[in-house]
Specification:
It contains two helices and 13 strands. By secondary structure, the chain is mainly beta. The chain has a domain of 118 residues. The strands form four sheets. It has a five-stranded antiparallel β-sheet with strand order 1-12-11-7-4, covered by helices on one side.
């Protein structure tokens, strides 16, 4: 399967390398300060640098599986806007868990439903807005969507801290 290209000033998606995780220094921080050539000081999340992305929240195991396989399998059970891949523009850490759960899920879900997030290029799919800050890419139940050119990376939250895969950070210009 082909790998995504780097996000640059033209907005191209980053390359994803599974299982290289980086932790933000604090849950509320916006800027990462890791020294060294790999992560220059003031490295920022791609969406904080202006990249247009959408976020698919899920359990952390599912986010890791999506990163490893580079595909999304459309669930057999329908969501509130039909079958497909659901996403939002709500960034991780931008609102409380309760508010995010209320926004994203019609049926009550536990907090672990938002412990993982898959970050996708905004232009990767034909998104249809179905409610405030919520989008769906329609697909048939059981379809397998190739994310190799759409996937920016994933985040997994453990102990209140987000851990990010390669591709989520962009050095300052």
């Amino acid at each position: 399967m082909a790998r995504p290209a780097r996000i640059d000033s033209a907005g191209v998606a980053p390359r994803v390398r599974p299982w290289h995780w980086v932790k933000l220094s604090e849950p509320g921080s916006r800027v990462l300060g890791l020294p060294g050539p790999r992560f220059p000081v003031r490295t920022r999340l791609v969406w904080e640098h202006g990249a247009r992305v959408k976020f698919h929240y899920t359990e952390h195991e599912h986010a890791a599986k999506i990163l490893a396989e580079q595909v999304f399998r459309v669930p057999l059970e329908s969501g509130s806007a039909g079958h497909g891949l659901y996403a939002t523009t709500v960034q991780p850490r931008s609102m409380s868990d309760e508010r995010l759960l209320d926004l994203l899920f019609a049926r009550g879900r536990p907090v672990n439903a938002i412990e993982g997030v898959v970050v996708l290029r905004d232009d990767a799919f034909s998104w249809r807005r179905y409610s405030h800050r919520s989008y769906v890419h329609r697909a048939a139940p059981g379809d397998v969507l190739d994310l190799s050119l759409a996937l920016v990376g994933v985040g997994i939250r453990r102990g209140g801290h987000w851990f990010w895969s390669d591709g989520i950070y962009m050095p300052p210009s």
